[in-house]
Amino acid sequence: MGGLVDFIEFSGGGGFIGHSYFLSDPAVKADLVALIRDRVKAGDPRRQLIEIKRPFWRISDVQQASR
Question: What is the distance between the alpha carbons of residues 30 and 10, in angstroms, rounded to a whole number?
């Protein structure tokens, strides 16, 4: 079953509603664009994710620091 789902950890504010981070955080938005528009998989250098242990990933601290 490996490879069907990836889980991305994000350590940031969730906003008032709790899920608005994907609209307001540039790192999360860039990752979603790479996934949806460009169809880039986790582990590809174009998605700046840090592997925890597949299928778990974390948004790069470098990306979060650039906010």
Answer: 13
- φ/ψ of residue 11, rounded to 5: -105, 90
* Cα 21 from Cα 32, distance rounded (Å): 12
Q: Tell me the longest C-alpha to C-alpha distance in the chain.
A: 35
**In this structure, how many other beta carbons lie within 10 angstroms of the beta carbon of residue 31?**
24
Vertex 59 angle, CA 23 and 53, to 5° = 135
Please write the tens of the pLDDT for every residue from 7-22: 999 887 666 666 677 7
Quote the pTM value.
0.72
**Gyration radius (Cα) of the chain, Å:** 12
